[in-house]
Amino acid sequence: MSAGRFHSYLLTGDGIVEMRPTWMVTTRLPATANVISSALGGAAQARPADRPGVLVATTVAKVGIIIDAVDSIRFDMKQWIDGRLTHHCDTRVFLSPEEKEGLPCGCPTSIADLKSRATVDRGPRPDTNIRFRLVLAPGLGIFEYKTRGWTLLTDHACNLSCLLERLA
Q1: Each residue of 94-108: pLDDT tens digit?
Q2: 57 φ/ψ sector (left φ>0, alpha ψ -120 to 50, else beta)
Q3: pTM for this structure?
Q4: Domain assignment of residue 77, given as a range
């Protein structure tokens, strides 16, 4: 289980996503939130009852991280229909189910075509997960950054290098 999640957005009470220039961290443990708050600035605040845990809106746009292993960064493509995983690949071959593993998945080779198909529910979307420890508090455990967005693939202002630089 992770120590918490890093994200760069805040979901408002109206269900609106607000992008933030600084990191937001959610965790189950108030003690972890207090360490995050001390190390990265910001105040720990309890989340609403329907979203348990503690949120820290940090004051930093950059965080030092430790990536322990190559498999701590995972990128693949997934399509979910009615709560079921119907397509899971790396844009070249299927990664699951077992009977399809390693077979060509049939995805287009261009990011624009991948995104176009996914937008009309005819193809998978990115699924990126980065697991890391904090340089300032490695003993807190493993944190996660997850995104199913296209930004790392399509926004020249923010790619994996850019993200890792923010998590540097």
Answers
A1: 999 999 999 999 998
A2: beta
A3: 0.80
A4: 70-127
